[in-house]
């Protein structure tokens, strides 16, 4: 005959006592035991006896089967779910240890569950605050984006020096030869397992610049140019950073990385030559990408930087979003309101081009205040390169003032006053009353419930 397993119900007993508003002394008096015995039971240092379980059921009118459920099994399940959080991904957590924790230390398990619950709620609130207009001012990503926007994504000293470097690279014959002659570095392309998930790594010990060999040609060139930018544009990047004060070292580091990427693009697409090509090609991004051996996204990004005095080109706004609508990059040179508030309107084609991957979709847009823009949107891919490395698909959009549209190959022959899609900055800041795509009512407008009439829009609101 197998022995029955001792029944430990400490946390459940403690919850019951608190729900009843009893002290340990009061419960002990009700059950005819000592307060110290109740304390031992609650700490799982004594098992629950059948006699005491019956006293609990009679004294507090409980269903014995419900009360005597397996707390340890429930804790093990809940703790196991918590420990699957990516936060703990690098910690080996055997199921047996989780079960031991739940059985032997239920109070610690409860504390862990409460802490993770509080952490999760705080993370959600923090994300909402950062996405909201006027959100957390100290967020380093927001601060870095603001710095770039305040400079209209143009940095004269970096662009000027980058042109000199590009000329030196061209004279050397290739970036690999420039690295060898100028820095004594050997350029090597190695598989991901050797690179240990790095796309680019400077091996100082062996004087090598190592690049992931699964990257496509444009990405390889950009990673090499990024290293060159960090080295050869170091002084210009430092002087640009010195002009601003950052709330944190993280924000400054993010801006430094952005400036190095800016420099890399300027080396691959030197300003004067690129600006002339842009004019000759009528902003044909695919043609420009082939001319400069860069990706569609790299060229689109570079188009937002053409603000050199005397050689300005059309000012563009650039945004990159994933299928869930998260904005991972945002650059403004065109005064587009989404630069401040995020790309949240589902009527903008940047959110629908995932249905037509690789195809360019054009669209005239009109904001509630009457401003009109012309948009070019398309999906782009990153990552991949081998069977076991998944690719990430995102959508990018370039938008310029509608008055500039006729200069673009994508809108030649069209009327800048052509029919435009009415969009909003975000639902909270858009007062269009009949929008079927609306998710929430605008700020400051009272919702008008109507039991006898249903409009196309999900909300009806007052005129105020």
Automatic annotation (TrEMBL):
Signal peptide: none
PANTHER family: HTH-TYPE TRANSCRIPTIONAL REGULATOR, HTH-TYPE TRANSCRIPTIONAL REGULATOR SUTR
Protein name, entry field: HTH cro/C1-type domain-containing protein
MF annotations from Gene Ontology: DNA binding; DNA-binding transcription factor activity
Family to which this protein belongs: Belongs to the short-chain fatty acyl-CoA assimilation regulator (ScfR) family.
UniProt keywords, alphabetically: DNA-binding, Transcription, Transcription regulation
Native organism: Novosphingobium kunmingense
Ranges of residues in domain HTH cro/C1-type: 13-67
Single GO cellular component term: cytosol
């Amino acid at each position: 005959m197998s022995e029955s397993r001792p029944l430990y119900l400490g946390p459940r007993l403690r919850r019951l006592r608190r729900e009843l508003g009893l002290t340990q002394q009061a419960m002990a008096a009700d059950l005819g035991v000592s307060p110290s015995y109740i304390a031992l039971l609650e700490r799982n240092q004594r098992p629950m006896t059948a006699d005491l379980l019956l006293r609990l059921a009679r004294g507090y009118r409980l269903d014995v089967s419900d009360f005597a459920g397996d707390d340890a099994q429930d804790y093990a399940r809940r703790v196991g779910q918590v420990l699957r959080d990516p936060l703990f991904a690098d910690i080996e957590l055997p199921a047996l240890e989780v079960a031991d924790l739940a059985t032997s230390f239920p109070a610690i398990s409860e504390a862990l569950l409460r802490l993770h619950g509080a952490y999760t709620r705080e993370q959600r609130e923090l994300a909402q605050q950062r996405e909201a207009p006027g959100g957390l001012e100290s967020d380093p990503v927001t601060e870095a984006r603001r710095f770039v926007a305040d400079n209209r994504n143009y940095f004269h000293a970096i662009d000027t020096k980058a042109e000199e470097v590009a000329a030196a690279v061209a004279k050397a014959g290739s970036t690999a030869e420039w690295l060898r002659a100028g820095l004594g570095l050997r350029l090597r392309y190695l598989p991901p397992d050797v690179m240990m998930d790095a796309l680019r790594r400077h091996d100082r010990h062996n004087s090598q610049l190592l690049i992931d060999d699964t990257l496509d040609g444009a990405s390889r060139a950009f990673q090499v140019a990024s290293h060159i930018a960090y080295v050869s544009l170091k002084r210009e990047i430092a002087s640009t950073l010195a002009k601003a004060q950052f709330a944190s070292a993280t924000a400054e580091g993010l801006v430094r990385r952005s400036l190095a990427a800016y420099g890399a693009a300027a080396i691959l697409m030197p300003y004067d030559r690129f600006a002339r090509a842009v004019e000759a090609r009528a902003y044909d991004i695919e043609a420009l990408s082939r001319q400069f051996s860069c990706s569609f996204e790299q060229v689109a990004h570079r188009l937002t930087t053409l603000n050199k005095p005397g050689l300005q080109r059309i000012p563009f706004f650039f945004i990159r979003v994933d299928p869930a609508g998260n904005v991972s990059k945002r650059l403004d040179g065109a005064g587009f309101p989404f630069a401040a508030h995020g790309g949240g309107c589902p009527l903008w084609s940047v959110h629908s081009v995932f249905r037509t991957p690789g195809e360019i979709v054009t669209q005239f847009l009109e904001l509630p205040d009457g401003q009109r823009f012309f948009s070019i949107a398309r999906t782009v891919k990153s990552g991949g390169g081998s069977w076991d490395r998944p690719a990430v698909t995102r959508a990018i959009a370039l938008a310029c003032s509608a008055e500039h549209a006729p200069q673009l190959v994508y809108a030649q022959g069209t009327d800048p006053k052509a029919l435009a899609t009415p969009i909003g900055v975000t639902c909270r800041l858009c007062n269009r009353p009949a929008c079927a795509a609306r998710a929430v009512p605008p700020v400051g407008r009272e919702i008008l419930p109507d039991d006898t009439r249903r409009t196309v829009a999900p909300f009806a609101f007052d005129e105020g």
